[in-house]
Amino acid sequence: MHGSRIMVLAALALTIATEARSARAEGEGSRNPYDDGTTAPVTIAPPPLPPPPSASATRPAPAPAPAPATAPASPNGPTSSSSVRLTYEATSEGRAEHPTAPTSSPDDSKLLHGFRIGYGYVMNYDQPTRAFDGESFKEKVGLRSPSHFLIGYEVLYRVVSHSWLNVLLMANGMVAGLEQSKVLPSGNLLIGAELDNSFQIGVGANLSPLAGSEAHTIIAAGWTPRVGSIYTPVHVFFIPDVDGVHHMGITTGVTF
What we know:
single chain; alpha+beta; eight-stranded antiparallel barrel; rod-shaped
């Protein structure tokens, strides 16, 4: 009897221990592993990426077409072609109010003048002539040498053709013999031509107050280069004489 009671108590204790162990195992399996006070790591998910833009979204929007220009409504009706022409002419006249001034050139000048100096020579100046009643030019004017210095002034009028040929009217007054203490004045009137604003040729009359030799023909030619706004002419001349007392020489100077 006593032994049966002990066996029942032992079986009961074994049953209680088994149930307690099972309950403890179930409690450990369902218990939060972070019940001891630690904090579970928080994982922050990245925001979702936007969907890639489509081809239609990246293409720039077409610019709006400009509205067609319309003429202002006229009280008398639509604008005519005559009004458009008048507007164009008015615009052209407004632009022509300030034309570009053409550049002036010395080659377009009509009146020129300047000083001349030169050298003269008298052929057969010691030969007796009929013009001087048997006297020579040397005896008539008192020269001691056929060579003499020239000085004078020239005025030139140019008919400008704006092409390769100009017409010239020239007049000059010269004094010879100053180096021999003589004053032998003379004047020349010539008409000629100018080629390409540089080469000049002319023919005219030579006049002097010397009795018996008052008038002769003169032929002249030369080159007139331009230096800036002035000219530096170089001319040669020849004055024929029926008695053989020919005059010739060369002159240069400045024309402005």
